[in-house]
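Handoff note, outgoing to incoming analyst
You'll be picking up this chain. Sequence as last confirmed:
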Amino acid sequence: MKEIQTNIGSSETTRENYPGFFISWFIGFSEGDGSFIVNKDTSLEFKVTQSSTDAQVLFYIKKSLGFGRVSKQDNISNTHHYRVRDEKHLLTIINIFNGNIVLDKVNVRFKLFIEAYNKRYGTNIEYIPNYKSSFLNDGWLSGFTDAEGCFTVSIIERSYNYTQVQVRYILSQKAEHSVFERIALEIKGKLSYLSSYDGLNLTVNLLNLKTIINYFSLFPLKTKKYITYFNWLRIYKLVLNKEHFTEKGLNEIKRLKGDKI
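Most recent structure output, in case you need it:
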């Protein structure tokens, strides 16, 4: 039996091998769009799925990690995936995530994944829990936003001479109430429960957006969602300067908004 072990030290050493805030971004992104899979034949795989229109982010992950494979997953749903299946690189994936996963449901699946890896490969890796004290000092929230967040603009004609423009940042997720409470507190957001979705919406409105905007200036998005964010940010500045009350400003907001915000 092999005596490969993973502990806090080896996990930290693994993460130090990768550039900048990539690892924290990658963990957040994977908690939204990734999967730790144990197949019926006991084989294991780690997979991140993305729309084929944004497959570039999967190639970015592959290049940054230096391993794995990106391929077309489904022609009907038009998706690609990044996948890791071999023993050596799955161990690296475990080292990256162990002690750094935020969401409760992902921690449950990851713990089962470690147990399955130990059983299949004769290792004795210990699962490390995590409690994230802040969401503004690394790239986790940027990655999670790339996977699960959205930047919205609503134009509402309240009367013939008054048009309201709502600019919001929104995160949505089923369960994870305690995690979302902590995020909401830190980024000055409001939590609401949606019965149709059976999940939580965390919404940051116009007057409280400065915190999250400052955050994204330090930890930028890496999917094509960045293009949406760029236009959203320009709209935010126009509304903050009350330019939406002018015909010129409102027309510019409508142009920037298009169909994607």
